[in-house]
Amino acid sequence: MEETTDHKEKKYETATFAGGCFWCMVKPFHKYEGVLEVVSGYTGGHVPNPTYEQVCSETTGHYEAVQVLFDPAVISYPQVLEIFWQSIDPTDAGGQFGDRGSSYKTAIFYHSEQQKEQAQASKEKIQKEGPFETPIVTPILPAVTFYPAEDYHQDYYKKNPGHYGRYFVGSGRAGFLERNWGQS
Questions:
Q1: What is this structure's pTM?
Q2: Other CB atoms closer than 10 Å to residue 121's CB: what's the count?
Q3: Mind listing the domains of the chain with CATH numbers?
Q4: What is the CA radius of gyration of the chain?
Q5: Residue 68 forms beta bridges with which residues?
Q6: pLDDT confidence of residue 7
Q7: φ and ψ at residue 117, rounded to 5 degrees
Q8: What EC number(s) are associated with this protein in UniProt (predicted)?
Q9: Does residue 21 carry a catalytic annotation?
């Protein structure tokens, strides 16, 4: 997806986030009006068109990530950033919850200087205002090629709600979000 896309004279924007397992990063964005599409995929690495197995091998440099297409006339990039922050543990440099390794680390991939500035401001706000006392380690990086994941990973929470629900709770993500953001 490009940073800004014209659809019948409307301008849509793209946001790209790594937040650990991409299965758990789709549903939070789908809840909001103005979010048009959320695609699971891979970004940040050096292997073109990686497979899930390659990314899991920790040899590609890729993060599991989501790319969010949104209408900034309905939901702003700062609002999209809030959804991201409230879906992760931004203090964990080794992965997310039960998933460890570089492909499960968090990151914000900006598509413009404005997104970079807004991401930096949101990171500083989270660090200053909490709820975390330890440093926020989520990097803010320039967007690079995004490769959509295999079809079976797309909208996983809809296709496999039972497994998704058990994973969301069993990984520790649900409890962490409840304790820190008051959401389940």
A1: 0.92
A2: 12
A3: 4-181 (3.30.1060.10)
A4: 15
A5: 15, 38
A6: 52
A7: -65, -45
A8: 1.8.4.11
A9: yes
Give the whole-angstrom CA distance, residue 39 versus residue 37. 6
Instruction: Report d(CA 42, CA 65) in Å as an integer.
Output: 5
Q: Would you place residue 182 in the very low, low, confident or very high pLDDT band (cuts 50, 70, 90)?
A: confident
**Phi and psi torsions of 36, nearest 5°:** -95, -30
pLDDT reading at 132 higher than 70? yes
Distance CA 10, CA 13 (A): 10
**pLDDT confidence of residue 96:** 96
Say whether pLDDT at 8 is over 90.
Answer: no
- Pairwise CA distance, residues 22 & 122, whole Å: 21
CA atoms within 13 A on the CB side of 37: 12
Residue whose tokens read 């990686």: 50
Structure tokens at 145: 């090629």
Identify the active-site residue in 1, 15, 18, 21. Answer: 21
